[in-house]
């Protein structure tokens, strides 16, 4: 079974963890939502095939998980919190571009139920949000409600389509990213066991982890 890795980013309390738990367990966390959950696994059916999705939550104080070179970054913001939307441009896009330009991005607007019920006023209009995101170079955008299970399925079906389409047009970048994943795995073995577990780059010593990561950028 093919497995894809997603890293989920966004400000605290925008609903990242709720989205992950809703997709992976089918349940909404309720009144108590952990600030950051452990990585979760979800299995989807896409075009008559089963695909595993490894969902990795992030904390705003620790973004090192972004360097895992996933297949997709998902940036979440709350539809009722303008600052979380502004931080896409101020914080998260610069961070992701500093890591790699070869990984697609999907932006998700959360807490749609609060907007629909008019409990909280949304900032801007959906059309204006789409317009701003396009100026930032982002064309993949979905709005959802984890509480009401609204558009959750759409997010992850769309995410796979994005990856498949992106992979066709960035085969070289994909290969480089696979090498980075393999190198990261090797570094983990070195840290844990004190020796190189696999033979990656055995015959080509010129690539260190730092130089390869710079190459990806």
Describe it for me?
This protein is α/β, with parallel strands linked by helices. The protein has two domains: 2-169, Rossmann fold, CATH 3.40.50.300; 172-216. It contains seven helices and six strands. The protein has a six-stranded mixed sheet with strand order 2-3-1-4-5-6. The model is unreliable at 186-217 (pLDDT under 50). InterPro entries: P-loop_NTPase (IPR027417), Small_GTPase (IPR001806), Small_GTPase_Rho (IPR003578).
Comma- or semicolon-separated keywords:
42% helix, P-loop_NTPase, disordered C terminus, 7 helices, Rossmann fold, Rho family gtpase, 19% strand, alpha/beta
**Oligomer kind:** single chain
The separation of the N and C termini measures 29 Å
The CATH architecture assignment of the largest domain turns out to be: 3-Layer(aba) Sandwich
Shape label: globular
Q: Low-confidence parts lasting 5 or more residues at pLDDT below 50?
A: 186-217
Give the mean pLDDT: 79
Look up the CATH topology of the largest domain: Rossmann fold
Number of helices: 7
Beta strand %: 15-25%
Number of domains: 2
Specify the helix fraction band. Answer: 40-55%
Largest sheet: 6 strands, mixed
Helix-strand makeup class: alpha/beta
The count of DSSP E runs of length 2 or more, i.e. the number of strands, is: 6
Radius of gyration: 18 Å
Order of helical and strand elements: EHEEEHEHHEHHH
Spell out the CATH superfamily of the largest domain.
P-loop containing nucleotide triphosphate hydrolases
- What spatial order of strands do you see in the largest sheet? 2-3-1-4-5-6
In CATH, what is the class of the largest domain? Alpha Beta
